[in-house]
Amino acid sequence: MTIxxxxxxxxxxxxxxxxxxxxxxxxxxxxxxxxxxxxxQFLLIALIFxxxxxxxxxxxxxxxxxxxxxxxYLLYWGLYIIAFVIYITYVLTTWAFPNTxxxxxxxxxxxxxxxxxxxxxxxxxxxxxxxxxxxxxFIIFMMVAIPDLYATNLLPLFYDRGGxxxxxxxxxxxxxxxxxxxxxxxxYLLEDEKINKKILTIxxxxxxxxxxxxxxxxxxxxxxxxxxxxxxPILYILHAVEVTFVKxxxxxxxxxxxxxxxxxxxxxxxxMRLVYFxxxxxxxxxxxxxxxxxxxxxxxxxxxxxxxxxxxxNIVYVNIIFTFLIPIVIIIVNKIRGRTVSExxxxx
Length: 348
Known about the structure:
It is found in: Membrane. This protein has helices at residues 7-19, 26-34, 38-59, 67-95, 102-117, 121-126, 131-143, 167-172, 181-185, 197-221, 224-227, 233-240, 249-276, 284-302, 305-337, 341-347. By secondary structure, it is mainly α.
């Protein structure tokens, strides 16, 4: 299976996959460890992410997966999707459907994902477009909370340095998970499409600003002592805001985020399809159904607060390995060996 992407499609896929899993929760971990310096720590990690993008663009021709690394990444993405479905289920049962059995929520959600995933690849590529007006609407709703914010909460900088202060840098990397998708998808870019530093800078600026908005709003809305008790700060902010035109802004955003999450999973499965079905295989629809069935059974069995708490505390370490370290190692090893993506396709 193969596809052809434009620059806009590539970065839309990247944006959805990088934000969909963590946007409602990454603020808590960063602020809990970084305190008032959370924004500084986040921006420094964002700069490292930008340098990584520049490195990936320059060296992407050396990134390809052999059978071992393909298997490792497919397992990683599969477990990542399971973890995300557990988190989605927790959020939906907490905020929107408290009386609905978790098995029903998981089944309906995954059936929609399965239907979208077995469609033409172009459907998965372009489905993210429907999110754009929703995200603009979400930003407008966030602005409604400005009268309830305290800008003084952002000060003083470089002051609150506890024993875990440096962990703020570590947890800031969670906002940039999925960066490996750039080198995964870069080879599918149309030949007449070019990516330069200006385009990468624009994407980096949009992504970082989108994250920074929610991070600074969280810092200005909550006292530091409250942060560790607020797992989804954006939802709590919207829940506290009272407006005349919508009774509960948090529920409205939950439905936006539900669509956002669905598109994220469909896009991750698209990448898995590109890797797994690179060579033609029999019964692709059946194999995808089995995959979603396994995800559903695993998520339904593991959807417990203790499991979710373990995932939130440790998934950042896994992301660093698969998002930052392994892609760089693969590129360096292939560059030393002199193997490129085009050569690997020829040999296969």
